[in-house]
Design a protein that fits this description.
Blueprint lengths: L4 H19 L8 H11 L6 H12 L4 H22 L9 E2 L2 E2 L1 H4 L2 H21 L6 H15 L4 H10 L7 H11 L1 H13 L6 H28 L2 H4 L5 H4 L5 H5 L1 H19 L7 H12 L3
Antiparallel strand pairs: 1-2
Helix pairs in contact: 1-4, 2-6, 3-4, 3-10, 3-16, 4-6, 4-10, 7-10, 8-9, 10-11, 11-15, 11-16, 15-16
């Protein structure tokens, strides 16, 4: 294991980038426009936080690198599909993503819709055709986990709640409910699937890990809301201040920046506590927790 967190991060980001390049359909395969748009939307952008969390969780269970890589690719494909659809005019109506034009701007709305559909299908194709766990039952549970995380009781449901909340005043509990689903569900799935690629874990260990994932998923969103207020469009790679412009409820609109940062710190400490049972095996998850809280984009 690489001792330096930056080296470990770069190595895994390079691994996931190469795997995405290899596993996405080649640009010269028909339908070429769709495949080019899929690659445009996935390759060469983003910090790959969810894949990194999958790799870090895999270290707890001593998972094989090749197994976790497929999980990491699948989760990133689901995440990328959600971004493509979120940017559409019928959703958040944004023109910039990861420092370049949104998919529907670079191509068109119909292509963007098909890109999202195709990325989601590819994610489940990869999960179903690879050996990812010690037993078929565990692997089926992993696929089920991602399906629920992406669906109406997870990410898609959170987005529906988000769209419905525009212009409304939510309390903190309602906002948390929205982001447990919209942002947190996929982060939790990445962590749990990464861990399930390795040796069996006890029910208590799985509960601790899922609690950690819930805390860090919420912390990620709290920091996102702060950055949307304080960072620039150039830094974020997407339109800054969009939530405020669209009159969306956020942790900053409810709590203010100072208390939102305090909440993120509280969530970090809660996340740390859930990792105590894993000792040194959870080092990368602790480091990623710090990175998520302290990031500037």
């Amino acid at each position: 294991m690489k001792d330096n967190f930056q080296d470990w991060t770069r190595a895994n980001q390079s691994r996931i980038e190469a795997s995405l390049d290899n596993l996405l359909p080649a640009a010269n395969i028909s339908p070429k426009r769709l495949h080019n748009a899929m690659r445009f939307s996935v390759i060469g952008g983003g910090k790959r936080i969810r894949p990194l969390l999958a790799f870090a969780a895999g270290e707890i269970s001593e998972a094989k690198e090749e197994r976790v890589t497929i999980v990491a690719v699948a989760v990133e494909l689901i995440h990328a599909y959600s971004l493509v659809h979120d940017d559409l005019p019928c959703m958040d109506d944004d023109v910039l993503r990861r420092g370049k034009p949104a998919c529907h701007i670079e191509y068109n709305e119909a292509t963007a819709l098909l890109v999202g559909d195709s990325l989601q299908s590819l994610a489940f194709q990869l999960l179903s055709e690879s050996c990812l766990a010690d037993t078929p039952r565990i692997q089926l549970n992993m696929i089920n986990n991602l399906a629920q995380a992406a669906g109406s009781c997870g990410m898609a449901g959170g987005q529906a709640f988000d769209l419905d909340s525009v212009g409304k005043e939510l309390n903190l509990q309602e906002l948390e409910f929205m982001h447990v689903h919209k942002t947190g569900a996929l982060i939790r799935s990445a962590i749990m699937m990464g861990a399930c690629c390795g040796k069996n874990m006890s029910a208590l260990q799985l509960k601790n890990l899922d609690n950690f994932a819930k805390y860090i998923g919420l912390a990620f969103q709290v920091v996102d809301d702060v950055l949307d207020t304080e960072a620039t469009t150039a830094t974020l790679g997407k339109t800054a201040g969009k939530d405020a412009d669209n009159n969306k409820p956020t942790y900053v609109s409810i709590l203010g920046v100072k208390k939102a940062r305090e909440l993120a710190e509280k969530l970090r400490q809660n996340a740390y506590q859930e990792l105590e049972t894993f000792g040194k095996a959870a080092t990368r998850l602790r480091q990623l927790t710090d990175y998520i809280i302290q990031r500037e984009s």
